[in-house]
Amino acid sequence: MKSRKLLMIPGPIEFESEVMQCMAIPTPSHVSPDFIDCFANSLKLMKDVWQCPSGQPFIIAGTGTLAMDVAAANLIESGDKALVIATGYFGLRYAEILKRYGAQVDILEAEVGDIVPLELIEEQLKSKRYKLLTFTHVDTSTAVLNDAKRIGALGKKYNVLTILDGVCSVAGEEIKQEDWGIDVVLTASQKAIGVPPGLALLVASKNAMQVFDQRTSPVANYYGDWANWLPIMKAYENKQASYFGTPPVNLVIALEKSLQLILKEGLDHRFDRHKRAGKAMRAAIKALGLDLLSKNEHVSANTLSAPLYPSQIDTSAFLKSVNQEGVILAGGLLPQLKNNYFRIGHMGSVNKNDLLATVGAIESALMNNGYSHELGLGTTQILKHF
Ligand code: PMP
């Protein structure tokens, strides 16, 4: 009998076997010709996946938080005004990061499970001259999806740099960075990009790079300073060896493979598949009589779902019980509601069978922990949507 459990948390996710094979090959030199080609190609493929042909991609060893830190460190100078649109835990984290670099930060915080209305964002942008605004495309703590296209357009209208935290969205939710006028789109490898944890990935617009060039003070973060990384990215793009910090070689090889698989599937197809998975999972959860933390379909992410526990259930035993059924899910992340909900990741390589197994495990665990319902109502929804 297979003992492997299905990992359905919102990152790390289940990775494609072709990607995992890249992690197992003997590590080549970071300046070997083959690896230089691989790095150059990964940078090029990032521009395709981000849909930002004139952008500057960066591949840096680190996590998603480092990608957030790097964008803030390079674009903020002490005293700059920044606006954070927070739809959960990671929005608030961005405010803390910006403050470290001396930004004067205002926060527009959404009600839990909702977005900040665009009219409110526009009012705020009218009332004060900001240098930069950040928003979380999908906040992994609430499963809320922001309208990136319209926030990007507001950034352009008010001449404010925009940073999209796409850690839980890039390669899962539709993003057209260049068309939508977003200045930085950042992510980490372990989510919909489909590579084990360890890569901080971002693409900066021409506009963002110009703002960086015009800085009058040094970047207050040595490791993250684009002045250190830009020559390295440029060298790899030009198929030349260069060194600032040793790249995580196998992860970059795995990244190239995963980006190739993403583009082979086709971006539109991939975004549609995620939409279908999100819709199916929300329908399954509702069919079981559970509510979701995200307020309505319009603001619900397609890369993860956040169901609320029914009141009858023994919440402490529930996730253990799902695990015994062979599926690993995540608990709540918002400190004030931690024990009121759980989270299901459905991004990257996720398929119909994964969704069926997950909903089946949830149905059994609900039943075993004091919540009676008719078995099969959730899985039927998955079948209906696929
Ligand atoms: N932003 C979002 C939206 C995230 O989901 C996460 C990770 N869950 C992060 C930032 C931080 O990424 P990391 O854990 O890789 O530092």
Automatic annotation (TrEMBL):
A GO BP annotation: glycine biosynthetic process, by transamination of glyoxylate
Transmembrane segments: none
Keywords: Aminotransferase, Pyridoxal phosphate, Transferase
GO molecular function: alanine-glyoxylate transaminase activity; L-serine-glyoxylate transaminase activity; L-serine-pyruvate transaminase activity
Leading EC class: transferase
InterPro entries: Aminotrans_V_dom, Aminotrans_V_PyrdxlP_BS, PyrdxlP-dep_Trfase, PyrdxlP-dep_Trfase_major, PyrdxlP-dep_Trfase_small, SP_NH2Trfase/AEP_transaminase
Residues modified as N6-(pyridoxal phosphate)lysine: K191
Aminotransferase class V domain segment(s): 43-332
Name the record gives this protein: Serine--glyoxylate aminotransferase
Organism: Winogradskyella psychrotolerans RS-3
